[in-house]
Amino acid sequence: MAYSAEKLKEEKVFKDPVHRYIHVRDRVIWDLIGTKEFQRLRRIKQLGTTYLTFHGAEHSRLNHSLGVYEIVRRIIDDVFKGRPEWDEGERLLSLCAALLHDLGHGPFSHSFEKVFDLDHEHFTREIVVGNTEVNTVLKRVGEDFPKKVADVIAKTYQNKLVVSLISSQIDADRMDYLQRDAYFTGVSYGHFDMERILRVMRPREDQVVIKQSGMHAVEDYIMSRYQMYWQVYFHPVTRSAEVILTKILHRAKHLYETGYKFQQEPVHFYSMLTGNMSVSEYLKLDEAIMFYYFQIWEEEEDAILRDLCRRFVNRNLFKYVEFHPSNDQMNKLMELNKLFRKAAINPDYYLVVDSSSDLPYDFYRPGEEEERLPIHLLKKDGDIRELSRESEIVDAISGKRRTDHKLYFPEDLLWDDSAKKNIKKQIRRLLELE
Amino acid sequence: MAYSAEKLKEEKVFKDPVHRYIHVRDRVIWDLIGTKEFQRLRRIKQLGTTYLTFHGAEHSRLNHSLGVYEIVRRIIDDVFKGRPEWDEGERLLSLCAALLHDLGHGPFSHSFEKVFDLDHEHFTREIVVGNTEVNTVLKRVGEDFPKKVADVIAKTYQNKLVVSLISSQIDADRMDYLQRDAYFTGVSYGHFDMERILRVMRPREDQVVIKQSGMHAVEDYIMSRYQMYWQVYFHPVTRSAEVILTKILHRAKHLYETGYKFQQEPVHFYSMLTGNMSVSEYLKLDEAIMFYYFQIWEEEEDAILRDLCRRFVNRNLFKYVEFHPSNDQMNKLMELNKLFRKAAINPDYYLVVDSSSDLPYDFYRPGEEEERLPIHLLKKDGDIRELSRESEIVDAISGKRRTDHKLYFPEDLLWDDSAKKNIKKQIRRLLELE
Amino acid sequence: MAYSAEKLKEEKVFKDPVHRYIHVRDRVIWDLIGTKEFQRLRRIKQLGTTYLTFHGAEHSRLNHSLGVYEIVRRIIDDVFKGRPEWDEGERLLSLCAALLHDLGHGPFSHSFEKVFDLDHEHFTREIVVGNTEVNTVLKRVGEDFPKKVADVIAKTYQNKLVVSLISSQIDADRMDYLQRDAYFTGVSYGHFDMERILRVMRPREDQVVIKQSGMHAVEDYIMSRYQMYWQVYFHPVTRSAEVILTKILHRAKHLYETGYKFQQEPVHFYSMLTGNMSVSEYLKLDEAIMFYYFQIWEEEEDAILRDLCRRFVNRNLFKYVEFHPSNDQMNKLMELNKLFRKAAINPDYYLVVDSSSDLPYDFYRPGEEEERLPIHLLKKDGDIRELSRESEIVDAISGKRRTDHKLYFPEDLLWDDSAKKNIKKQIRRLLELE
Amino acid sequence: MAYSAEKLKEEKVFKDPVHRYIHVRDRVIWDLIGTKEFQRLRRIKQLGTTYLTFHGAEHSRLNHSLGVYEIVRRIIDDVFKGRPEWDEGERLLSLCAALLHDLGHGPFSHSFEKVFDLDHEHFTREIVVGNTEVNTVLKRVGEDFPKKVADVIAKTYQNKLVVSLISSQIDADRMDYLQRDAYFTGVSYGHFDMERILRVMRPREDQVVIKQSGMHAVEDYIMSRYQMYWQVYFHPVTRSAEVILTKILHRAKHLYETGYKFQQEPVHFYSMLTGNMSVSEYLKLDEAIMFYYFQIWEEEEDAILRDLCRRFVNRNLFKYVEFHPSNDQMNKLMELNKLFRKAAINPDYYLVVDSSSDLPYDFYRPGEEEERLPIHLLKKDGDIRELSRESEIVDAISGKRRTDHKLYFPEDLLWDDSAKKNIKKQIRRLLELE
């Protein structure tokens, strides 16, 4: 029997708190789960630094990846199967792409990518097509199968219906993470009727569409998404940890570039610092390794690196105040910058503006949403209409970008009775801390 | 105002998926949560290797510790408060002991303690009374307060009512972990009506008792506990990972003791290997550090250490068969031992009997249960009766120890077409693999 | 001890699927629950005919009334207590008003009130101040206490803070029913973080306000409300049952007024039909009594009454098509009217336009919302701002009334092979059934 | 196409709070749901008088019947389908029997059957094979199909595998009601992992068996069942309402038999009282009709009937004390009997011993369990073993019948300051009320 058609003798199941069970019958999927590149995702948290705000959010990307796979499996096997618009020959490809779509994520991706100019999507492709266990499994299906999987994940695959299963404004990726992140953080947002949405999904030539009768479930999903972004993903405490983490990486990079002598050579970082990182080096990076370095750096000679690492590891975070980028506030920021320098607190690391921004829904896809397809409804008469033209509530919020700016700083350093007493008093007044 | 009586200006809450919210008003509790020793518990999983079986079980001991604190807080503030048998002066002590009761746990405690003859309870005491941030906070309450906290955790404190809140057969520790572990694994066991149990708890001189009317809720709790032990805690796949982990540590110890030259010095292990570990060294150990070493050891020269680490990190676990320690089976085990040696698979590391054993409930406390008080019911007439004398279902299972033995081995090594073909065939037959 | 201050020797609890437990300590509350007027609410469904669409929605108004009481109790005892803006002297009054706010509801209130020009709020007052067991209990608190309770429910009580607890756009009434109706129907809408909302409620002179930090939870509540209205309360199948029920009552009224001789005298309806109904007669009406008559009427001589009752009792409902009140459609409706008459299907009973309309949120309170206060946020600096000025998402939907019209008819009567064959064919074409 | 094979054009779903959705594709099932005999189950509560203890337990037998159907559907379509031991030709029969198994239940069956010597199983058969809408639908499948359905429900059908789906110690009936009753009452018992149990069910010649690997899930189910019986089904307050209801029926029967002249003829009861009830008369009985009579009887001349009806309708229940049928207690009961007569409180109606008894599990099936098959496990080697031989915990409780006796009486009548003052004091002492 062709490897691609091989079934396990007995279905395997993983107990999953969100979907109850993850079901695996395909040998290919089973083998992919067993690869070391996939298992590595256990050592990368799904929500980065969020666990420092919501202590339950300690779940890994492996957790989420299994969930996305399960949702795609249900769409295909329970809803699409047998419909003329669906090509069953794309089934295995869709499942593999779903399972592997986050494979290239590194530790605390957000900060790393910013500081070292990395791109997890690039590494996902490299792992899928490179010399890895994942690639070996995929190649057994067909010589060009790894490339196809990479193309689906990169959204360049020609069958856009397959792409839309994992990359659209209502794809399996988002449906899993909203529910999963809600479950692990324990927040009451993030609930929507996924079972209903799955039941009303229909395959069309270039995308998944939603039967009109499921419009309200989709509205609910969009509202959940909105709440999760502002209540969880952009939580100011999480962003504080993120700011510190980013500054740790900046400092390490700066020290390396200025010839600083580390007590223990940070070998895991070298190729990253030189901008020349191989897949095998990349795969060694996970959050355990990061914490090893952060712990060691808690004893480094450089005071800034030492302090920032201690803050991150021991959760002694920066405080924040609201910040609106008006002229007034920009002037105040420059004034604070000067005062921080006078107080011998390096503002490059200790005075940080962080901004979060989100569009709850849009149909013309600007910015981050660029490659996410809008949602289309399938009307009773067969017509297809973009969601915001049918839903008054979605229309009302469509295109309304919301942005939030905060100014982060270490409040504990602003109170000590040092020689800088008066300067710190000035700083505290400007920050309205007293 | 005395530090012990200080309240936060505004109550702080942590969103918790199990108890909805953790509420903190006491300054002391807030300060303890902020210590680096408490924050370290984020880097130690509550359920050790269980996440390799139940992928959701990635929650940390910090998570659980907050939960135990919250349960004790509710018992005291919502149920005991104002009752003559309860001394409000013990409130803060009880809360601190609840929060800190797991402070001395190291990474993968079970395996570490076995191999290196460590004792997490010893380290809990050392951290509480030693030179730590936790100690500094506790000492602000009173000079002897750290010792009192340590005594409650060690169950030697003279007020046994306080002790029983966190150490009995129905204490806050167990009530939290059963529910929490059920939540994160996603299993349907582990549910019981905690709110009802809390409502019927009553303080008595030397222990918490349960009003007779809550007996059925307690029965349900005991059944939950039974199911969680056999379905989750003793799951054979989890034990397989545990076996491998233990063998890694054994091997590393053996290599160290026989003068092996590691490619990178395992400095974090030295004092453990020499049996002379300080608290500050102990506190540096967490699961991130362990994974750093396991990753490095994946490339070690020693084939056994290398192989075991790869298995653990990439979840390539041992298989198992049932094993009953009868004469027949012991003979078979010895035979297998010989065959493994002949096949050049060191049986000291690759052929392991693992046993799990549990008493669902007992009133005379043998073995592990030694220090756990039995459960007492408070009857309407004021009499107090041990649970199994009132509950037929508890009586039926009381004292019934259940034990499970399994024999673990690396099945993948038993199939290759090497020179040892015939020996391996013999092994496979003895293990009934074919 | 004054009756108003009497506490039960031991707290009573009712197991509640939504709030876990309903807690009762006050003797007055306990006694009110035991009155026959309150117990009568067990025989009136909370959601009228909704159980014919969502089979789980069989819960009664007693169920909901206990829930509203419990929410108000938590707000007062857990959040307001001890705050200077809260007058503890209003506690019992608030609890009684919460418990009794729906006391005057009759069976299938919506239809009854429309057909017989009744007003449940009028009857609530009459029951509270009239010669009833509820009144006897309340009078033991104080001679003017029943009137005060009635005033709070009627929103005329001078302390508007007390009124707002049960009548505002985010009151205990709505918070209970959204969650309760979601629970019993099983829909996934209706979830919001009530515990968080309760924690951020603050008493102010003339209303409850919400701390700014709880704004997102309130947004979520408003979205839940929106979904519940359109997914559950206005479900077209429920409205079909409602239409039939209304027509049954219309027909019975018409028959009575035209001197029809019923096989069994509908004594329970007489005073209603003559528009002169006493409280004691009103209290005898419940849904069991209605079903007794509907069952008897299934055998009445009048064909319309008989048919409609059979439809309602056996759930043989009307079908519907979309209807927009344009000129075209109005003409079509008139045409249908004529055709129905020709086909000997009385359009007064068998061709019905039903409209539902809702405002998701508004601050200027038109229509049904007239007496519902808008939601106010309490900012950090003490300022109070109306919600839609702070929340972009609420602002986006604020004031957007949505209306839905449907045309109901008995499809089964339009297909039979009778003499009216051609007329029915015409009707079916106009209704686009073929 | 044969009617039996007809599918709906589009699958119909009912939102169900327990199973999320009930799925219907078969035309036969859809038509059966629409019959008036099935719709009548909406007017009969699943748990009789339990709603007077647990206010959420207002759900109907229709609710439960849909659930049983859905479970059987899943077993057949998701687990049995394609297995050689399963005859797909029995599918529709199994679904119909599941849906209709409770069809013959009357209002408050338990009390009615006791007093009037009725048998709901008899009426189920009569409705299925008699002149009813249900029969008409079933006959369209085949002339002998109604009889087959009746046989499956009566457990006399020759294919015992089909019978065991709805009648064994782990059938769809029980699995639905345990979960459903837990959901609507809100208790935390009643949870077990049904999805897991379904997955490990296997068809065998004469029954459903459970794969050994699902043993723990089955243990959990048995414990849930035990808790539900003692916490919910046998709750003493529910039994108090049941006692009063039974006494109402007894009294009405007695009055009828002694020629009492009712103010309104209880026509619905006549054939029941004469022991000669037709199916069509039986079908008119539902709980709405009962409440109509109870309300009317609240004003009857007979003081006992009047009082008991008021108690039942207004939930003014009997109190209870423990009662053990020892010689001592029997003597006390006789003494109380005499004293009640002296106090002019008729003990035939006002002094009632009620007993509940249950076997948590048994393999030899005595008493009520007579026709319930024990549970069999399918071992890896194909052997089949009775559950209690494999499970220590089930063995421990197997065959342990538990019985509870209570003595019920109207406490409120024992306190008034009447001429019987001293006698009542004696009664109160004997009952240990003071």
Give a summary of the structure in a few sentences.
Four copies of one chain form a homotetramer. By secondary structure, chain A is of the alpha+beta class. Chain A contains 21 helices and nine strands.
Helix content of chain A: 40-55%
CA-based shape of chain A: globular
Distance N to C terminus of chain A: 75 Å
Radius of gyration of chain A, taken over Cα atoms and rounded to an integer in Å: 24 Å
Rounded mean pLDDT of chain A is: 92
Give the strand order of the largest sheet of chain A, numbering strands 1, 2, ... along the chain. Answer: 3-4-7-8
CATH architecture of the largest domain in chain A: Orthogonal Bundle
What is the CATH fold-level name of the largest domain in chain A? Hypothetical protein af1432
Largest sheet report of chain A: 4 strands, mixed
Low-confidence stretches of chain A: 364-370
> Can you count the beta strands of chain A?
9
> Number of helical runs of chain A?
21
CATH class of the largest domain in chain A: Mainly Alpha
Structural key phrases:
globular, 2 domains, 21 helices, alpha+beta, homotetramer, 12% strand, Hypothetical protein af1432, 4-stranded mixed β-sheet, 3-stranded antiparallel β-sheet, Growth Hormone, Chain: A, 434 residues
